[in-house]
Design goal:
The structure is a single chain. By secondary structure, the protein is α/β, with parallel strands linked by helices. Helices cover 33% and strands 22% of the residues. The strands form 6 sheets. The chain has a 7-stranded mixed β-sheet, with helices on both faces. A hairpin with a 2-residue loop joins strand 16 and strand 17. Helix 15 packs across helix 20. It is globular. 56% of the residues are buried. The site of fe (iii) ion (FE) has 7 residues, from helix 13. The site of fe (iii) ion has 7 residues, from helix 13.
Length: 762
């Protein structure tokens, strides 16, 4: 009659209210026994009738707490045991250590009800949370993840909070950041010298008034400070932009709830799901015509970045202001997000009019994540709050702990051991001192939290990268230099558990190849340990090197001179006619080949053609013109331009862009709209991609195909390539790992381990 069952649950099951939920389930099924965290997840030892146990296991697998994710559920029989009750037992942390700290979680529905219930003791308390919601990773100082090892340690729980914390079955049982107005953190509104304006609930009111009046408020959130402003007010948004020195990048908007989000953007089912997901990323979606937000939120863009409130403070502010808020990270352009009160006051003085601060410290700064739906699936473009520090499972465990140092732009690092790879939050561009300092601090923190030091350090081939210099500071490790595009392809292999050979289309702006040239239009036949370069793009000369990246009109000029063999109709094109002297100088540089290194990156083609057709001489930020060129494409246009693929020379196919450039120029001179030209340009590139893959399959045999590199953040391109190859190849896009340089560190880890331990190999 009596039976026993042991159930090992693996996945995201710690710190997400999993044990209390198991506890309630066990009580409902009349079982006895225990549940506890172990080193790898949660173990349940349950006793009762076999029927009740079967139902229990079935219910476990069925519906779990929202932020949890069961990767595997293994059961085996146990001899019956005469236990009297079901209990939540102390953790047993032996065996391999994992990151037992979960990602931060958005305020749950139960807590929201309390927040707005005047009879609740936490009515309008900005720091309420429970086992299903609240800060996690950003407040963790050590492991195991217990209150004493978080920035909540200085707050001694009051009697009422302690009772909740200690009562199994209470929804605040072992909620480490549990707090109430009597014992928890306090909110303050301060001016830019740090002087108190008001405290507590009045602070929210002060901030609401300021926002309504069009002022900019710095708001301390989970992973750092946001700069908030009324998204409907042209004046407020313009003020924010001007002070933040961010004159073009789109700003994220936080509507109050999903219904308010629908007013701003036409959302697909998948986008809606992504918006309310526990990770709460900024979701890029199609902005509705006439959406009630200031134009300056996302000038010229057909997209808008939306994110829903994820802390009680957000909910209070949005309820008070009754308008969507711009919520952009609290920094000046190119600096890391400010996280400390003092740091924010110092760095955001003159930017914010009022500061909403509190005394719960942020241990690990973390930007908002950014995601969008491509080909019906979510793709994380910037991976940070909500996703970090969730592990990416590796199909082949690494032999020794590996650190991948990443690339310098949109950098992340990745620390891996056993079968888990931990990607750091997005750390920005390492060129600035502040960003590089934060990068180094975050590496040290990950090593400490994971209790592991790398024995292998992988880095980009580029000798000038700060991340490469950093890799060289490690003593007594094996270092491995990984070609940028091999790392891109490997990041997709790691994400999709592809251990064999793949065809990798790695298209991005730039990255150093093994021949010292700038690559970025590559088709590689790759394994984890090596690659063969099958195809690339005809290179374009970058007059002035990096200057051409900032001034894409120079790229346009180079493309035209190449495509028309020196006979380009430059005087009929305003982009060049407007700057005759500069154009002459650059033309000479190009013709003489002085300081004009060749670049194969497809991103440069987007820059150059975008500059030509849109008449945009300069980029205001990295990838600016390329992005606008992408977004200009008319979705209804399906015709393409001719584009050539040259027969392989020395085994390497080359995409000849000259026919494309000539056709674009002809359409432009004929007065065709930029929307049509952009669409035809996209079609041509997708056709070229599909043709290359088909040729590769024909000559080398079928392999899975991965699309990676920053160009495949471009939904139109990625979807078109995938659609063309449907039924012909197994095409994989990125999902949990960014296609851009934020994923490179994971690829480096995957490659370095394979290189050193000779697994597979092209
Ligand atoms: Zn909650
Ligand atoms: Zn309390
Ligand atoms: Fe790249």
């Amino acid at each position: 009659m009596n039976a026993g069952r042991r159930i090992d649950v693996r996945g995201v099951v710690q710190g997400v209210g999993f044990r209390p939920w198991v506890y309630r389930l066990a009580l409902e099924e009349g079982l006895t026994g225990r549940v506890f965290n172990d080193a790898e997840g949660v173990r349940i030892e349950a006793f009762g009738s076999s029927r009740a146990l079967d139902v229990f296991v079935a219910r476990l697998a069925e519906a779990t707490p929202p932020a949890s994710e069961i990767r595997s559920l293994r059961t085996r029989d146990l001899p019956p045991e005469a236990s009297a009750a079901f209990e939540i037992a102390p953790s047993r942390e032996d065996g391999v250590r994992r990151f037992s700290i979960p990602p931060d979680l958005p305020t749950c529905p139960d807590c929201l009800v309390e927040l707005f219930d005047p009879d609740d003791r936490r009515f309008r308390y900005p720091f309420l949370n429970c086992t299903s919601c609240g800060p996690r990773f950003t407040i963790a100082r050590g492991v195991p993840y217990d209150r004493a090892a978080t920035t909540m340690a200085p707050f001694a729980m009051c009697g009422a909070c302690r009772r909740e914390y200690e009562t199994p079955g209470d929804r605040r049982f072992h909620a480490q950041p549990n707090a109430c107005p009597a014992c928890g953190p306090t909110l303050r509104a301060v001016d830019d010298r740090g002087h108190d304006v008001v405290c507590g609930r009045d602070a929210v009111d002060a901030a609401v008034r300021a926002l309504r009046d069009g002022f900019v408020v710095a708001v301390k959130g989970l992973g750092g400070f946001h700069l908030a402003a009324d998204a409907r007010s042209d004046a407020a948004v313009a003020r924010l932009r001007e002070r933040k020195r961010r004159d073009a990048k789109p700003l994220a908007v936080m509507p109050r709830d999903p219904a308010a989000a629908e007013v701003l953007a036409a959302l697909s089912e998948e986008e809606r799901r992504l918006l309310v997901s526990p990770e709460r990323p900024i979701v890029l979606a199609a902005r509705r015509a006439g959406a009630p937000v200031a134009d300056a939120v996302a000038p010229r863009s057909p997209l808008v970045g939306l994110l829903l409130p994820y802390t009680p403070l957000h909910h209070l502010l949005l309820e008070g202001v009754a308008s969507p808020l711009v919520m952009t990270s609290g920094n000046l352009s190119d600096e890391p997000i400010a996280a400390g009160n003092g740091e924010a006051l110092a760095r955001l003085r003159g930017v914010a009019d009022l500061f909403l601060v509190h005394d719960r410290e942020i241990e690990s700064p973390c930007d908002d994540s950014v995601a969008r739906v491509v080909a019906g699936r979510p793709v994380v473009l910037r991976r940070a709050r909500g996703y970090v520090p969730r592990a990416i499972p590796l199909v082949r465990p690494v032999a020794r702990p590996v650190l991948g140092c990443g690339a310098d732009l949109k950098s992340t690092f990745c620390l891996a051991f056993g079968d888990s790879a931990y990607l750091s939050p997005h750390l920005g561009d390492l060129e600035g001192d502040a960003a590089f300092t934060r990068y180094r601090e975050t590496v040290a923190r990950f090593e400490r939290l994971l209790g592991v030091s790398p024995e292998v350090v992988a880095h980009d081939l580029h000798p000038g990268f700060a991340s490469t210099a950093f890799a060289r500071t490690f003593a007594d490790v094996d270092t491995v230099a990984v070609a940028h595009h091999h790392a891109h392809v490997a990041s997709a292999m790691a994400e999709h558990g592809l251990a064999g050979e793949v065809f990798g289309l790695a298209w991005d702006g730039t990255g150093l190849g093994t021949d010292d040239a700038s690559w970025g239009g590559e088709l590689l036949l790759a394994s984890a340990a090596g690659f063969e370069r099958l195809a690339t793009f005809r290179p374009v000369a970058l007059a002035g090197g990096d200057a051409a990246v900032r001034e894409p009109w120079r790229v346009a000029l180079a493309l035209l001179l190449d495509a028309f063999d020196g006979e380009a109709p430059l005087d009929r094109l305003p982009l060049f006619a407007d700057r005759p002297r500069e154009a002459t100088v650059i033309r000479e540089m190009l013709e003489k080949g002085v300081h004009a290194p060749p670049a194969h990156g497809v991103g440069r083609l987007f820059d150059g053609i975008g500059a030509l057709v849109l008449g945009r001489a300069r980029s205001r930020f990295e990838g600016d013109v390329a992005l606008d060129w992408n977004l200009a494409a008319d979705p209804r246009e399906t015709r393409g331009y001719p584009i050539g693929i040259d027969a392989p020379a020395a085994g390497l196919w080359s995409v000849d862009t000259r026919p494309l450039v000539r056709a674009v120029t002809a359409d432009l001179l004929a007065g065709r709209s930029s929307a049509t030209i952009s669409a035809r340009f996209h079609v041509a590139l997708a056709e070229a991609a599909a043709a290359l893959v088909r040729e590769a399959i024909r000559v080398r045999g079928p392999r899975p195909v991965v699309l990676t590199g920053g160009c495949f953040q471009n939904a139109r391109l990625a979807e078109d390539v995938a659609a063309r190859l449907l039924g012909e190849a197994d095409v994989r896009l990125h999902e949990r790992v960014p296609p851009g340089d934020g994923g490179v560190s994971l690829g480096q880890v995957f490659v370095a381990d394979a290189v050193l331990h000779r697994k597979g190999g092209v």
